[in-house]
């Protein structure tokens, strides 16, 4: 991820960083190259415009042109704006209540986005942190989803709640929450069903599950490989159901990075974790500053 954009950004940074004097023309050229790099990376057009105009405005001031180290000043502007684009603050933690009560995490996303895998990765992570998670198989559409979650749960030693033959995910969710409370499970992670494409039935179903559970955290799992489509779908989920955070799956794939660079700005919710592989331990907190440094090379 980011290989191509990082190549282009580091060229811009190298060209300007060492200069003891830079002109308005230098800045215009650099900003133009940044614009092309962002567009090539499939970043949302509005996001690109805002980034480019803001950078230009800030860099054209006396602060940069008259600075002792103008190149460095320019690079700092680009870096700060990149961090802001990715999510301002450092890693944003899960919104969970204390261990004396049951918190609920609702997982949403299109089929194949990595929802089920991410649910089990989160469970494993929380268990390691000393929590007592329970997984819930409320994806009642994809035939193999329940079994898949059971296999994943077994492998990490986390119980998986399901009801054989039940077609109503709200019933499954409510029964799971009641059991979690009784068994003093402090985090319930609910895997909901996805579809290949968005449709009203899916949204209604997830909305009903959400209303029944009143989750503390509603995570949208976005597949990095789907680029702008991931951003559009996230917006839909945000408007129709409401989300509190994003997990960007398949961050290890060879994509241009458009989803990562557009999501926060377009949807307005933080990216909390990234999926970096198929294995249970391949889930990492999302650090905007580290990613920005990586892109700037
Ligand atoms: P769901 O339909 O949304 O529940 O998707 P799954 O959890 O079944 O994942 C779909 C496929 O993506 C599976 O083959 C997963 O192993 C794979 N997958 C999920 N997350 C990641 C990730 O972060 N990196 C990679 N490389 N593969 C992933």
Automatic annotation (TrEMBL):
Positions binding GTP in this chain are 109-116, 191-195, 249-252
Localization, per the record, is: Cytoplasm
Where, by residue number, does the polypeptide cross the bilayer?
Answer: none
Question: Where is it mostly found?
Answer: cytoplasm
Signal peptide annotation: none
UniProt GO cellular component terms:
signal recognition particle
Q: Which reaction does it catalyse?
A: GTP + H2O = GDP + phosphate + H(+)
Q: Provide the E.C. number(s) assigned to this enzyme.
A: 3.6.5.4
Q: Does the keyword Magnesium apply?
A: no
Q: Annotated Gene Ontology MF terms? A: 7S RNA binding; GTP binding; GTPase activity
Q: Name one GO biological process term.
A: SRP-dependent cotranslational protein targeting to membrane
Residue limits of the SRP54-type proteins GTP-binding domain? 270-283
Alphabetical UniProt keywords: Cytoplasm, GTP-binding, Hydrolase, Nucleotide-binding, Ribonucleoprotein, RNA-binding, Signal recognition particle
Q: State the function annotated in the UniProt record.
A: Involved in targeting and insertion of nascent membrane proteins into the cytoplasmic membrane. Binds to the hydrophobic signal sequence of the ribosome-nascent chain (RNC) as it emerges from the ribosomes. The SRP-RNC complex is then targeted to the cytoplasmic membrane where it interacts with the SRP receptor FtsY.
How is the subunit organization of this protein annotated in UniProt?
A: Part of the signal recognition particle protein translocation system, which is composed of SRP and FtsY.
- Description of its domains: Composed of three domains: the N-terminal N domain, which is responsible for interactions with the ribosome, the central G domain, which binds GTP, and the C-terminal M domain, which binds the RNA and the signal sequence of the RNC.
Similarity section: Belongs to the GTP-binding SRP family. SRP54 subfamily.
Q: What is this protein called?
A: Signal recognition particle protein
**Protein's organism:** Sphaerochaeta pleomorpha (strain ATCC BAA-1885 / DSM 22778 / Grapes)
Organism classification: Bacteria, Pseudomonadati, Spirochaetota, Spirochaetia, Spirochaetales
Stretch of the intact protein here: 1 to 297 of 444
